[in-house]
């Protein structure tokens, strides 16, 4: 529910602190997401925490953006990250967060 998502976000506010990324990408990362996806929220929080420029592409049901993602990768799943700086393309919030931390994370 919305309340549960809100409560979880509030509980993480103390942990969410801006920290400087060791490297900034030249081009913004692109994150495909579905607004209520808790997995996408984790990725957005890491991108925001590191102040990494990114574009969020919301893919609600019935949206042509969802169809576009499906056409690109052959199925629909969020979060999906594209990094044109390195050529990385990936699903799975755990893998995406690990990639962001390894590639751009703070020292």
TrEMBL record:
Give GO cellular component annotations, separated by semicolons: chloroplast
Q: Which InterPro entries match?
A: Glutathione_S-Trfase_N, Thioredoxin-like_sf
* Annotated GST N-terminal domain residues: 27-107
Q: Give the highest taxon in the source lineage.
A: Eukaryota
Name the Gene3D superfamilies on file: Glutaredoxin
Which is a Pfam family this sequence falls into? GST_N_3
Which PANTHER family does the record associate with it? Answer: THIOREDOXIN FAMILY PROTEIN
Q: What is this protein called?
A: GST N-terminal domain-containing protein
- Native source species: Ostreococcus mediterraneus
